[in-house]
Specification:
- The chain has 213 residues and is an alpha/beta fold.
- It folds into two domains: 6-64 and 169-208, Periplasmic binding protein-like II (D-Maltodextrin-Binding Protein, domain 2); 67-167, 3-Layer(aba) Sandwich (D-Maltodextrin-Binding Protein, domain 2), CATH 3.40.190.
- It is built from eight helices and seven strands.
- Strands 1, 2, 3, 4, 5, 6 and 7 form a seven-stranded mixed beta sheet that branches.
- The longest helix has 17 residues, at 182-198.
- It holds the Pfam family SBP_bac_3.
- Belongs to the bacterial solute-binding protein 3 family.
């Protein structure tokens, strides 16, 4: 993974084009939520839209669209998913504390969702066969699988994303309503993103990270 990932390079470039200095604080998702809600950080990076979060954030224009769904061990031929959530009732599904995955999936209460402190921990549990599935957004999980490879040999090949996706989500930045001048920061971020699209920088960054145009 180059730098801190292509999405961060996009966001950082958009922000800095408007005269700001950008820094990314790496925290657990639960901590990132709490810090940004309280205004200890200006924004929540790589958030999905949820109605509940509107009380704390104003959302930027999307950075991208990404799939959220289920990961499983490739060797588990007995596990399949056809889009029917009720078919998942017998299985243990790892979910990151505080993470939004997909509207229907998040709302139903009949699934055996096993809360994990973060997605990385869920993938470790899946690898050692203590979970049947992990629910996560695809790009983040795939980055984490590559990160875990040195310590968990073969994990990036043995754990796979399965279709269909639970949902395709806009990838956003939530500007904290407790951040100083948050409305101006929101406008400036959106202006920076528009500039990246217009001058071709957005697609240049994607190309550097292996995206096909």
């Amino acid at each position: 993974m180059k730098d801190l990932g292509w999405a961060w390079v996009v966001a950082k470039t958009a922000v800095e084009s408007q005269g700001y200095t950008a820094a990314l604080r790496i925290e657990s998702w639960a901590r990132a939520l709490e810090d940004s809600k309280q205004g200890l950080t200006d924004a929540l990076f790589l958030a999905f839209w949820t109605e509940e979060r509107l009380q704390w954030y104003e959302y930027t224009v999307p950075i991208a669209q990404i799939e959220s769904g289920l990961f499983k061990l490739k060797e588990r031929k007995d596990l399949a998913f056809n889009g029917d959530l009720k078919a998942l009732k017998p299985y243990e599904i790892g979910v990151c504390r505080g993470c939004a995955i997909a509207d229907e999936f998040d709302e139903v209460d009949y699934l055996n969702k096993v809360t994990q402190k973060n997605t990385e921990n869920g993938l470790k549990m899946l690898f050692v066969k203590r979970l049947d599935f992990v629910a996560a957004n695809r790009p983040t999980a795939e980055i984490l699988l590559n990160k875990l490879e040195p310590a968990y040999k073969g994990i990036s090949q043995k754990i796979i994303f399965i279709k269909p996706a639970l949902q395709v989500n806009d990838l956003l930045v939530g500007i904290s309503k407790k951040a100083p001048d948050y409305k101006k920061k929101l406008r400036d971020f959106n202006r920076g993103m528009k500039q990246l699209f217009l001058d071709g920088t957005y697609h240049k960054i994607q190309k550097q990270y292996g995206f096909k145009q």
